[in-house]
Amino acid sequence: MIKFEHVYKEYEGNSAIEDLNLEINDGDFFVMVGTSGSGKTTTLKMINRLIKPTSGKILVDGKNIDDYDLQKMRLNMGYVLQNIALFPNLTIEENITIQPESLHWNKEKRRKVAFDLLEKVGLDPKEYAKRLPSELSGGEQQRVGIIRALATSPKMVLMDEPFSALDPISRTQLQDLVLKLHRELQTTFIFVTHDMHEAIRLGDTIAVMSKGRLEQIGNRDDILNHPKNEFVKGFFQQEKNGQATVGEMIDAGFGTKTDQAINSSLLKEDSLNRLAVELKDNNGVVVFENIDDNYQFVTSDLLDFFS
Ligand SMILES: Nc1ncnc2c1ncn2[C@@H]1O[C@H](COP(=O)(O)OP(=O)(O)O)[C@@H](O)[C@H]1O
Ligand SMILES: [Mg+2]
């Protein structure tokens, strides 16, 4: 089990994580979801000690991570990044077996693990083992990125937006693949995404982050049907009814209060299609009345919301 106890992280005096307390159980498919800058990568990298908390403790199986031998600890923590980062001059087999080689596994054992894993993700080893990364599609390379992280049978795998650079079809296939791998292996998956659809699709446990704070943690039903606050409700509303509104964008933290004069009769209940039209008609800046304030959206708010 992984446990965060009152973890804070500041970068040069700016708070990135505020009093984070959470537990991740063994074997869970744990998804952390939140908009860009909410602290997801920081949280993930604190687990494998790429980033050190400013204060607070992180425990793995009851022991402070600082008390583990770093090399040994990292071998038990696979790590998959968004940009695939395979070594271009090494074959696929060599890429998969970098860690096993550093552990001095013999050639036969290394080959077996590479071939078994390639098989598992639907890449024929006889065809793919000898190829170079440039001879694979983006989706295929990311499959290799995932199995490379599994080569030493780690206890947990940390994945940081691994599919966000892929086209929608490859992304869906890879989501299915990680669900299958998770069912087959007894490994804890810790998966970071900004995509609420992906979070709902993959997570057994879902942690919703905003601005360095954990807003809610729970299963699909908790998050979709029992949101703890307006932020969580707003973030997942679209998933629930497929029709996002201006109010949900405000709840999700987009737009700003302003002293500018109103130039639009936009309402909280209006659809985002309506907002797009208003932005177009008003040179990309819409000011409308929201309860007692004048509120402003710019075009990038809408784009950021959708991304
Ligand atoms: N090395 C760094 N130096 C300064 N600020 C950083 C650094 N890394 C991240 N931050 C800031 O910390 C906050 C959280 O970042 P991050 O964990 O990368 O968020 P996410 O992965 O959710 O997009 C952001 O405001 C970001 O700008
Ligand atoms: Mg990130």
Give a quick precis of the structure.
This is ABC-type quaternary amine transporter. With 307 residues, the protein is α/β, with parallel strands linked by helices.
Task: Tag the structure with descriptive keywords.
2 domains, 307 residues, six-stranded mixed β-sheet, binds adenosine-5'-diphosphate, 14 helices, binds magnesium ion, 13 strands, four-stranded antiparallel β-sheet, Rossmann fold, alpha/beta
Q: What can you tell me about this protein's structure?
A:
GO terms for molecular function: ABC-type quaternary ammonium compound transporting activity; ATP binding; ATP hydrolysis activity. This is ABC-type quaternary amine transporter. The protein has 307 residues and is of the alpha/beta class. Helices cover 39% and strands 25% of the residues. The chain has helices spanning 40-47, 70-75, 92-96, 98-102, 107-120, 125-128, 138-150, 168-184, 196-202, 220-225, 230-241, 246-251, 272-281, 299-306, and strands spanning 2-11, 14-24, 29-34, 55-60, 63-64, 77-80, 156-160, 188-193, 205-210, 213-218, 256-258, 285-290, 293-298. It has a 6-stranded mixed β-sheet with strand order 6-7-8-3-9-10, with helices on both faces. Strand 7, helix 8 and strand 8 (188-193) form a beta-alpha-beta unit. The chain starts with a strand and ends with a helix. 35% of the residues are buried. The protein binds adenosine-5'-diphosphate and magnesium ion (MG). The site of magnesium ion has 2 residues, from helix 1.
